[in-house]
């Protein structure tokens, strides 16, 4: 069989024009794995409420972080793809879950090159219904309907893989070595608590109160909260961080349902009020810098911190296209080429997701 790789990230609007942002938000938020309520209610919430006001506000936020070449998330994903491609013989393609760089077009490009054995790589370290699962479900649906000759395997979440933890820790250390900081906050994108319960394959493990995530359980294969706390714990161990000098929080909540807590904005505010003067923030749920890191954290987060008396606020870049990160990903691909069972993968045709 002829192998190839498909990297998939979230996607961005075509431009910062509110019309393009509206189109993007419509596709994103109408995904039943993102807003997981019955269709009529999702359509009422998204098309009837959110899309009337949010596109303008989001477009303003995107304008603050947009680059001449385009969306940072897309440009950085393309740079990573280029670096990986230089280190492997097999074709490495890139798609976005939402927007014009579709998974279907990428599958077509790969199959046109004769590829029929594809490693799908969702660019998310931790599993979530709204990220990894929606990519896997769509890719498998396309495979069945349009590319039945293709074997599709997905790279399992890498939130605890030693080489990933090593590179992430190194990227943090490089910044902290030249920075004053009293506290290091690990801020992950949030999800509604309901998503954690829905993804619990045991139907009874996840309590979302911290009591479950340390106990051994099969549920953790699909538990976003567990996987986020594990990434923090492993980086803490790797860097020898002292207890109390680092913690975990969740950002970017939307709507009125309870999302994973503690919330990042409130944590920044509380810590500033409690006398933390210098704060560093890392955002390990994102492989590439994007709106949520460059605007919500680096701009809004810093503003909140300064308002309550904080001084130095240091944001640590995502792994983006770091050479050591591209090397780690290339090694995973190399291992998969040599011996597919050498890396953790999910055979999508055999899973129950659909
Ligand atoms: C770990 C990654 C992400 C999870 C989990 C996630 C869940 C999630 N997101 C929304 C709503 C929005 N997210 C938005 C932007 C955005 N989200 C992620 C990643 C995750 N989302 C990224 C990388 C980005 C930035 C994209 C970019 O172009 O830079 C937005 C759009 C911006 C805005 O209007 O604020 C929304 C909306 C929900 C509802 C959700 C889980 C249910
Ligand atoms: Fe999001
Ligand atoms: Fe748990």
Number of helices: 11
> Into how many domains do the coordinates divide?
2
For the report, how would you describe the main beta sheet?
5 strands, mixed
Element pattern in H and E: EHHHEHEHEHEHHEHEHEHE
Ligand species: ligand L6N33NVT, fe (ii) ion
Number of extended strands:
9
Major sheet: order of its strands?
Answer: 2-1-3-4-9
Word description of this protein:
- This protein has 354 residues and is an alpha/beta fold.
- The protein has a 5-stranded mixed sheet with strand order 2-1-3-4-9, with helices on both faces. Strands 6-5-7-8 form a 4-stranded parallel sheet, with helices on both faces.
- The protein folds into 2 domains: 3-16 and 66-157 and 323-350, 3-Layer(aba) Sandwich (Rossmann fold); 162-316, 3-Layer(aba) Sandwich (Rossmann fold).
- It is built from 11 helices and 9 strands.
- Helix 10 (291-307) links the parallel strand 7 and strand 8 (312-316).
- Helix 1 crosses helix 2, helix 3 (72-85) crosses helix 11 and helix 9 runs parallel beside helix 10 (291-307).
- One fe (ii) ion (FE2) binds at residues 206, 212-213, 223, 225-226.
- The ligand C=CC1=C(C)c2cc3[nH]c(cc4nc(cc5[nH]c(cc1n2)c(C)c5CCC(=O)O)C(CCC(=O)O)=C4C)c(C)c3C=C binds at residues 10, 12, 25, 34, 54, 58, 71, 73, 124, 128, 130-131, 189, 191-192, 252, 254, 285-286, 290-292.
């Amino acid at each position: 069989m002829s192998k190839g790789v498909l990297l998939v990230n979230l996607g961005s609007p075509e431009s910062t024009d509110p019309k393009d942002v509206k189109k993007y938000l419509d596709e994103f938020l109408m995904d039943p794995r993102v807003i997981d309520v019955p269709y009529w209610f999702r359509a009422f919430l998204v098309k009837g409420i959110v899309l009337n006001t949010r596109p303008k506000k989001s477009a303003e936020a995107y304008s603050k972080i947009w680059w001449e070449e385009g969306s940072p998330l897309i440009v950085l994903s393309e740079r990573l793809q280029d670096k990986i491609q230089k280190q492997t013989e097999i074709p490495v393609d890139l798609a976005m879950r939402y927007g014009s760089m579709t998974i279907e077009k990428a599958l077509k490009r790969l199959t046109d090159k004769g590829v029929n054995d594809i490693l799908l790589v969702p660019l998310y370290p931790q599993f979530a219904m709204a990220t990894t699962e929606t990519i896997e479900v769509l890719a498998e649906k396309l495979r069945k309907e349009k590319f039945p000759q293709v074997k599709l395997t997905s790279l399992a979440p890498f939130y605890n893989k030693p080489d990933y933890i090593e590179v992430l820790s190194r990227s943090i250390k490089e910044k902290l070595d030249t920075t004053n900081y009293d506290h290091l906050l690990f801020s992950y994108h949030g999800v509604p608590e309901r998503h954690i319960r829905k993804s619990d394959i045991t139907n009874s493990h996840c309590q979302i109160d911290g009591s479950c995530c340390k106990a051994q359980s099969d549920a953790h294969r699909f538990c976003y909260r567990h996987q986020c706390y594990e990434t923090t714990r492993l980086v803490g161990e790797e860097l020898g961080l002292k207890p109390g000098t680092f913690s975990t929080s969740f950002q970017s909540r939307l709507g009125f349902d309870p999302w994973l807590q503690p919330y990042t904005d409130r944590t920044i505010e509380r810590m500033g009020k409690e006398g933390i003067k210098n704060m560093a923030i890392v955002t390990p749920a994102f492989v590439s810098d994007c709106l949520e890191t460059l605007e919500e954290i680096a701009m809004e987060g810093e503003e909140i911190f300064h308002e309550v008396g904080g001084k130095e606020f240091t944001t640590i870049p995502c792994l983006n296209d770091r050479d050591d990160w591209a090397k780690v990903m290339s090694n995973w691909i190399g291992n998969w080429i040599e011996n597919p069972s050498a890396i953790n993968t999910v055979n999508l045709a055999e899973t129950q997701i659909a």
